[in-house]
C-alpha cells in the first residue's frame, strides 16, 4: 500500500562467511538508508561509499551501486458488483491495467581497502554485464575481479 518494502539479499559472494571477515549484518538496510520504495519512474543509477566500523574498530568500506528495475504493481483486477455481492450483467468491467513501477536493486562491494574508483568500476562492470544480458556467469566475473597477480618489485612483468 505505502510502497515501502524490505530489502533482501538475493545472492552473495562468498556464500559463507570467512572466519576473519564475517558478512556485515543488516547490509540490506544500509543499501537504501531512506527505505526500500517503489517509484513510478526509473531513477538514474547511484553510487556511494560508506565506512562501517565493526566491534573491533576495523573499517569496512561498503560501495553501493543502485539501479532500478521495472516491476508490475500488484493491484487486483476489479469487477462491478451489486449490493448482494453478485456481479452485474449490464456493465461488464474491464480489468485494471497494473501501473508499471520501478524497484531499486543494489550491488554492494565490501572491502577493508579504500579504493572507491576501483569499487565503482567493478560494480559498473557487473551492472553492464547484468543489464546487457551477456552470457557470462556472475560467479566467473566476480572471481576474475577478485583474483589478480601483482608482480614483485623488480621482478618480471
From TrEMBL:
Designated gene of the protein: Sbf1_1
Protein name, per record: MTMR5 protein
An MF annotation (GO) of this entry: guanyl-nucleotide exchange factor activity
Signal peptide interval: none
Record domain UDENN: where: 1-157
GO terms (BP aspect): regulation of Rab protein signal transduction
Annotated stretches, region: Disordered: 73-97
Origin superkingdom: Eukaryota
GO CC entries: cytoplasmic vesicle
InterPro entries the UniProt entry points to: DENN_Domain_GEFs (IPR051696), Tripartite_DENN (IPR037516), uDENN_dom (IPR005113)
UniProt xrefs under PANTHER family: C-MYC PROMOTER-BINDING PROTEIN, DENN DOMAIN-CONTAINING PROTEIN 4
